[in-house]
């Protein structure tokens, strides 16, 4: 127990009626008496433990009738130590100086003497009202109780409790403990290692300096760690957690949380439900927990775990390790040398840049290596392995950019059935309702988009719930954006509206004009505005309405460009009159006045509606539209030397342009070699190996001519270029004379064939020689779902840009052209789904004859380019190529075209070289069919390179397709005599070889003792006697060579086409 003595002098000023004085300590009365005219000294000895707090008060009560009385108090001391009188309050009328306190009738003055006593009161309690309370320097426990309180700590270790109401708690210095309790509270730890509890309600917690622990508890909370190594728990609800500086540990717990790590090495665990986690800088460890989560490592060498659910991962920069866990996950490594593990279920793995290791593990997985020398391991299951990238959505897609801007509402409108549109934004309770029979699952409005919703213009619309996040609170900043395509622009049609006939925001069409408008009529009236621009039906647009009342701005952006603005005078007041998409939902306010009821329904398609409670800037909206046009990511591949291991299961492996290895492993595998010098090993199982990525027809002399093969495939146009005179280029395709070409400006005929069986070709001088072909509905004036164009050419000059073939113009187009040493394949649609252009190109040489093929397949969603039958690249498309009547040109651009780097309306870009055999099909030829044509054409070509590809079937009954180039077929499996492998496309012209050395023991050089080759008139059969001792008695068949006869073992050994040692 602590004891102290209180002394003070007191003097009264009065005539007849002595003033009364009351002294309080700790809220308790310790003295009451009357004051004499002369000075007197009072003294009290007290125990501090007997009192609830340490406030000292002198009070002159309002009693008595004599006026002009006063009390003077001086020389206040505690245990003979003077008290600083200036610490006494004057807010209740007291006159306070350094030497005395003067109280008139009804006045009092108090101070807290805990510092002087060296004690801290056990609990300081507020009232049921709105309190403002301060701790002293010794550390206090303060309870705000009911009301909206403001409680401030001090330099001690304080415990602050807000109680009921929306409270503000600031710990300041010391290691504090803050409890928000009930209500929507704001808690700041300040300096020191603090513990903060949000309690119930939607709270904001900030740790600030020190190693803090934050608990959001119930509600949708915002938690900020600040400096130091913090530990943050979101608790229940949809929380936002920011680690900020320091190595933090962040836990989302229950709810759809967003977690942001900061610059150092953080740990984050999303917990239950659908979470989004960003590591940012540092070497982070991120765990998704339960639910379908999105994890983004950011900079640094990060480790990401999906745990349960179907998760999406973005490693971004650094050498990352990603583990998918259970669920159908998508793993994207990004820059750096990453290691990806799909783990359980059917996953998609994409390495992107760097030398990556991708492990599909269990399930039927798809693995895409991307740039660099990658290793892909399929693991168990039937997997697809690609050495190159395909187009997989990332944070750079249209959807990814919208989500990065943290919308409160984001409706993709990509549902296929039902009446609910799911909100992907950050605010719960905003799933919306399709009304009137909105048609779902319609075609995407842009490349890389998902489905869209079709509104009939009669009674279809979407009802969005009222929400404090949108329309039930005052608004200072707002962006509303959406993608739409109107079937008609006639009449008045509402695309989006929130509010009613007094306060409103609305986007609508009115007689061919697109309008945006905002109006506030509750306070200082402002608006409406006539902000509009012309639009066309049948075209896809991105529209954004932007408002920032802090800067007084309202504006409209169409396709990323501002088309008008107005001035907002004040905030937009709460506007509870419903929210509608595709129609007016109860009421709104147009540029020409208010309207009530339901109607003004939109006729057309809508997708990707987002509402942001911030004003997006012009650069963001421009990027948004550019992303929409490009489809987000159309990255082609640039490979290194990759290793693909299929593992167990029936796998499909696609090698590409590097010097790759493909190992099928167990199961019945298919391996495509692609461009480059590859090694293909089937492993156990019945495998099929394609050296150059596709099946090659045997060059046996029975394949006929290229022209007969083209005509058998049914082209609509086929120009053989075998004319000897005149200006008419004869079309041998099914259209006939309407698309005969016209030689112009002196194209040289009878220029000699480009391959052995080529009758003739035509030479173009690169100055003005050209062939014009008339527009035709079967080629370019109708929409095209499938198209193949093949052409044989030999360039005399590859500098600059020269067009070999083009159809269309500067909006919709197909073009095959040369630019600065590379051959390009490109297509672009600018009217429908809006896809392309693409950068699909490969190097070519002057004076070399090539076969080029372009394939468009809208059903499969791809365009492809092939050179000499080998895949050059793939582009992803979202629909057919629409009508493109901008002329057809061979050897030049007729009126302009669309290239990989954009539109060019120039007539010209003349080709210098020789052209033969141009064919156009309204079908997507298979890759095998294209290779058939190349093999026929190559019958007279020779190859002298080292071995291009190595094919080894391994155990099982295998098929080995050599393809173009000098191939080595390895027959060395222990079961070779049981499962006889088939060799297809063995070519002596190309210098192919068969290696059987692994089957022979003690080869003496006498080939007849070890090997004999027989045939049945169509195929040849290689037979071996493994030790050569039985002189042919034990010959057994080990390989079948299809479509080749008259092979002699001794001759093959002498020429190096049979390898025995």
Task: Give an overview in words.
The protein has 1061 residues and is mostly beta strands. It folds into five domains: 3-117, Lipoxygenase-1; 353-394 and 637-683, no CATH class; 398-630, Sandwich (Jelly Rolls), CATH 2.60.120.200; 706-939, Jelly Rolls (Sandwich), CATH 2.60.120; 945-1055 and 1057-1061, no CATH class. The chain is 5% helix and 38% strand. The strands form ten sheets. The protein has a 23-stranded mixed beta sheet. The longest helix is centred in the middle third of the chain and has 13 residues, at 618-630.
The major pleated sheet works out as: 23 strands, mixed
How many E strands?
A: 90
| Proportion in helices | under 10%
**Which CATH architecture of the largest domain?**
Sandwich
What radius of gyration results from the CA coordinates? 41 Å
Structural domain tally: 5
Structural category is mainly beta
- Low-pLDDT stretches: 631-638, 693-704, 940-945
Please state roughly what percent of the residues sit in beta strands, choosing from under 5%, 5-15%, 15-25%, 25-35%, 35-45% or over 45%.
35-45%
CATH topology of the largest domain: Jelly Rolls
Mean pLDDT: 88
What distance separates the N and C termini? Answer: 102 Å
Task: Name the overall outline.
Answer: elongated
CATH class bucket of the largest domain = Mainly Beta
């Amino acid at each position: 127990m602590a004891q102290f003595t209180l002394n003070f002098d007191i003097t009264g000023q009065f005539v007849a009626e002595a003033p009364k004085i009351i002294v309080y300590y700790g809220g308790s009365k310790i003295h009451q008496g009357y004051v004499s005219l002369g000075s007197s000294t009072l003294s009290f000895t007290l125990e501090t433990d007997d009192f609830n707090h340490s406030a000292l008060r002198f009070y002159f009560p309002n009693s008595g009738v004599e006026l002009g009385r006063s009390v003077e108090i001086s020389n206040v001391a505690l245990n003979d130590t003077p008290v600083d009188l200036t610490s006494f309050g004057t807010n209740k009328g007291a006159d306070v100086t350094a030497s005395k306190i003067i109280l008139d009738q009804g006045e009092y003055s108090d101070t807290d003497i805990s510092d002087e006593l060296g004690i801290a009161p056990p609990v300081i309690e507020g009232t049921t009202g709105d309190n403002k309370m301060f701790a002293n320097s010794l550390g206090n426990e303060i309870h705000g109780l009911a009301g909206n309180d403001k409680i401030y700590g001090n330099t001690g270790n304080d415990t602050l409790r807000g109680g009921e109401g929306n409270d503000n708690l600031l710990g300041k210095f010391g290691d504090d403990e803050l409890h928000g309790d009930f209500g929507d509270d704001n808690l700041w730890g300040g300096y020191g290692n603090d513990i903060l509890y949000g309690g119930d309600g939607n709270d904001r917690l900030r740790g600030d300096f020190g190693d803090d622990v934050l608990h959001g508890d119930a509600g949708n909370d915002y938690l900020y760690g600040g400096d130091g190594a913090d530990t943050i728990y979101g608790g229940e609800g949809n929380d936002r957690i920011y680690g900020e500086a320091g190595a933090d540990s962040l836990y989302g717990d229950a709810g759809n949380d967003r977690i942001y790590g900061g610059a150092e090495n953080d740990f984050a665990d999303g917990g239950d439900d659908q979470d989004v986690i960003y590591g940012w800088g540092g070497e982070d460890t991120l765990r998704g927990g339960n639910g379908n989560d999105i994890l983004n490592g950011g900079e640094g060498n990060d480790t990401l775990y999906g745990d349960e659910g179907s998760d999406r991962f973005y490693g971004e920069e650094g050498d990352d390790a990603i583990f998918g866990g259970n669920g159908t996950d998508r793993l994207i490594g990004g820059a750096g040398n990453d290691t990806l593990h799909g783990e359980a279920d059917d996953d998609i793995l994409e390495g992107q840049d760097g030398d990556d290791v991708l492990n599909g593990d269990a399930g039927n997985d798809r693995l895409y290596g991307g740039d660099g020398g990658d290793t892909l391991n399929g693991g168990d299951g039937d997997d697809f392995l690609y050495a190159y990238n395909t187009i997989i959505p990332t944070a750079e897609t249209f959807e990814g950019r919208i989500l990065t801007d943290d919308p409160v509402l984001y409706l993709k409108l990509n549902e296929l059935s039902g009446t609910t549109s799911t909100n992907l934004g950050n605010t719960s309770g905003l799933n919306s309702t399709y009304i009137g029979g909105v048609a779902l699952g319609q075609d995407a409005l842009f490349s890389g988009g998902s489905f869209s919703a079709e509104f009939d213009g009669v009674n279809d619309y979407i009802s969005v719930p009222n929400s404090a996040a949108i329309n039930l609170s005052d608004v200072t900043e707002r962006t509303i954006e959406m993608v739409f395509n109107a079937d008609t622009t006639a009449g008045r049609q509402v695309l989006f509206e929130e509010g009613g006939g007094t306060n409103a925001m609305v986007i609508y069409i009115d007689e061919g004009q697109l309008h945006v408008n905002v109006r506030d009529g509750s306070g200082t009236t402002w608006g409406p505005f006539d902000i509009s621009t012309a639009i066309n039906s049948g075209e896809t647009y991105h529209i954004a309405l932007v408002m920032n009342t802090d800067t007084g701005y309202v504006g409209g952006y169409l396709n990323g460009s501002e088309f008008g603005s107005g001035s907002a005078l004040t905030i937009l007041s709460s506007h509870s009159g419903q929210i509608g998409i595709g129609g007016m939902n109860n009421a709104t306010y147009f540029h020409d006045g208010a309207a009530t009821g339901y109607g003004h329904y939109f006729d057309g398609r809508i997708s990707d509606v987002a509402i942001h409670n911030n004003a997006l800037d012009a650069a963001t909206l421009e990027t948004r539209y550019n992303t929409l046009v490009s489809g987000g990511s159309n990255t082609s591949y640039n490979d290194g030397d990759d290793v693909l291991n299929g593992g167990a299961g029936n796998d499909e492996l696609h090698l590409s342009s590097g010097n790759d290895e493909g190992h099928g492993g167990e199961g019945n595998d298919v391996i495509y070699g692609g461009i480059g010098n590859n090694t293909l090993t089937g492993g156990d199982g019945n495998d099929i190996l394609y050296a150059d990525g596709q099946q090659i027809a045997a060059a046996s002399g029975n394949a006929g001519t290229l022209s007969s093969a083209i005509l058998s495939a049914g082209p609509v146009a086929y120009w053989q270029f075998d004319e000897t005179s005149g200006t008419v280029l004869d079309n041998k395709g099914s259209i006939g004379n309407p698309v005969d070409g016209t030689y112009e400006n002196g194209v040289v005929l009878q220029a000699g064939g480009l391959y052995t069986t080529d009758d003739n070709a035509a030479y173009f001088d690169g100055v003005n020689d050209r062939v014009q072909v008339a527009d035709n509905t079967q080629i370019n004036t109708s929409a095209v779902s499938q198209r193949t164009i093949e052409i044989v050419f030999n360039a005399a000059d590859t500098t600059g840009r020269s067009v070999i073939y083009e159809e269309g113009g500067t909006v919709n187009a197909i073009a095959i052209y040369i630019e600065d040493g590379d051959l390009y394949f490109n297509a672009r649609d600018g009217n429908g789904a809006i896809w392309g252009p693409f950068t699909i190109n490969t190097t070519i040489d002057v004076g070399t004859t090539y076969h080029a093929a372009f394939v468009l397949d809208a059903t499969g969603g791809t365009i492809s380019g092939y050179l000499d039958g080998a895949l050059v690249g793939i582009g992803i498309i979202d629909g057919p190529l629409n009508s493109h009547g901008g002329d057809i040109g061979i050897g030049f651009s007729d009126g302009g075209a669309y290239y990989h780097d954009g539109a060019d309306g120039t007539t010209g870009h003349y080709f210098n070289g020789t052209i033969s055999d141009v064919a156009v099909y309204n079908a997507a030829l298979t890759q095998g069919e294209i290779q058939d044509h190349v093999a026929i054409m190559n019958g007279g070509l020779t190859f002298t390179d080292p071995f291009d590809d190595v094919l080894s079937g391994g155990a099982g009954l295998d098929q080995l397709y050599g393809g173009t180039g000098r191939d080595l077929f390895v027959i060395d499996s222990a079961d070779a005599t049981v499962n006889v492998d088939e060799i297809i496309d063995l070519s002596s012209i190309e210098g192919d070889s068969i290696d059987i050395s692994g089957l022979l023991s003690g080869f003496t050089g006498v080939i007849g003792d070890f090997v004999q080759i027989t045939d049945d008139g169509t195929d040849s059969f290689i037979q071996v006697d493994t030790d050569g001792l039985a002189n042919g008695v034990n010959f057994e068949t080990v390989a079948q060579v299809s479509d080749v006869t008259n092979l002699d073992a001794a001759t093959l050994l002498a020429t190096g086409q049979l390898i025995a040692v």
